[in-house]
Amino acid sequence: MQYLCRNFLYDMKILGIGNALIDVLAKLENDTLLSELNMPKGSMNLIDVHTRNHIFGKIKDKHVKITTGGSIGNTCLALAHLGVPVGFTGKVGDDDYGKYYVREFENAGVSPHFIHVPGNPSGTAMDLITPDGQRTFGTYLGIAAEMQKSELSAEILHQYTHFYVEGYLVQNHELIEGALSLAKTMGLTTALDLASYNIVEAEREFLQRLVDRYVDIVFANEEEAQALTGKPAKEAVEELGNKVEIAVVKTGGKGSWIKANNETIYVPVEEIAPLDTTAAGDYYAAGFFYGLEKKKSLQQCAELGSLLAFEVIQVIGTKLPPETWDKIRAKAQEIIAG
Q1: How far is the C-alpha of 203 from the C-alpha of 210, rounded, in Å?
Q2: DSSP annotation of 110
Q3: In angstroms, rounded to a whole number, what is the distance separating the alpha carbons of residues 54 and 246?
Q4: Residue 142 backbone zone (phi > 0: left; psi -120 to 50: alpha; other: beta)
Q5: Are 284 and 312 contacting, i.e. CB atoms less than 8 angstroms apart?
């Protein structure tokens, strides 16, 4: 099955917008800290600087890993490793975290459109990983939360064909709706990742409005899809697919549902025990976009998404070594040729 969506038959160039965050990853021995912090496992929780410092104190004696984060940021970096033209816009401070974040994107080949704010802390996401591989985020947005609609550049948007937005920006309704509206007006294909199920639950009506008015492609996992539609994965993808050009609902280690052009497909995967599920959905989106960029069928797009997700859940954090990217690119070519 081939897609027939607007802008997909042209050369694809994707601009992502999201919270520019540094991930601070720590493996926990049990769920005790999550209970203490009142953080549901697998959720994303906005925290203040005092809670962030409290968590730092709790994990300081554990093996802590620092890497780039932010949902759309992860996708953009993965796309760059696959050779897809991609840019990213977000807000960072001039601290060491912000400098590290920008440097990683530039080194990976992502076109940087960062807004730099001197004297303000960059955002950090405390990524707490339990023994079952699930990750729970305590996110201190810092300066990332202060991006404004007025800072969006139509001149930059003109350079791209696709605009990818993370639902985590929902803390700023004016920004996320303004960004999608501007991109839609300018003729870009718009895509939205629904972020986290607890965010969807809290912002259900607003996110439904975004999907109804502005979105061409929507990505969700089954918990997020159910929070938005009140339906399980298959029924949720049917409902979402009636509103957008492509709807994708991921079901973790079981596979994914995709609906486009009045056709629904299910693409299973081989289930494995994850070491860390951080960025699994972000990498899936990168693989899916890669398939679209290569003008492949939705079946192949889903297989490419699953390939990337499979690899990232076998490491701690979001960064894959060069030899793994070599393996991914080789396997991707087999899927594309199939």
Answers
A1: 11
A2: P
A3: 42
A4: left
A5: no
Alpha-carbon gap, residue 9 to 14, rounded angstroms? 14
* CB-CB neighbours of 316 under 10 Å: 18
- For 183-210, the pLDDT digits (tens) are 999 999 999 999 889 999 999 999 999 9
Contact of 13 with 162, CB cutoff 8 Å: yes
C-alpha–C-alpha distance, residues 334 and 79, integer Å: 18
Of 67, 68, 94, 93, nearest to 16 by C-alpha is 68
Nearest to 18, CA basis, from 86, 66, 119, 64: 86
Cα 203 from chain centre: 18
Count of other CB atoms within 10 angstroms of residue 161: 18
If we measure between CA atoms, which residue out of 107, 106, 109 comes closest to residue 13?
Answer: 109
Note the pTM of the prediction, 2 decimals: 0.90
First to last CA, the chain: 13
